[in-house]
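Bug #77: duplicate submission created two jobs. Keeping one. Sequence:
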Amino acid sequence: MPDQTDWEAKAANILKAELKRKGVTYAQLVEKLEAIGISEKEVNVRNKLSRGKFSASFMLACLSALQTVTLHLD
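Kept job's structure:
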């Protein structure tokens, strides 16, 4: 299995930081995703974020579920 690329790590870190900033746990994120029609299991979300292997659409869905309107990429 290939190592996590810099871009994968950056995407995962951005999403994890947003969860922390909002004070949202993985379980709460799953609930918020379900509220917008996205079905995910907590273990799958946890694995996606730990590996950094997820699609742009998953990241956008998470940011939408978290009601993130501004994202800083630095």
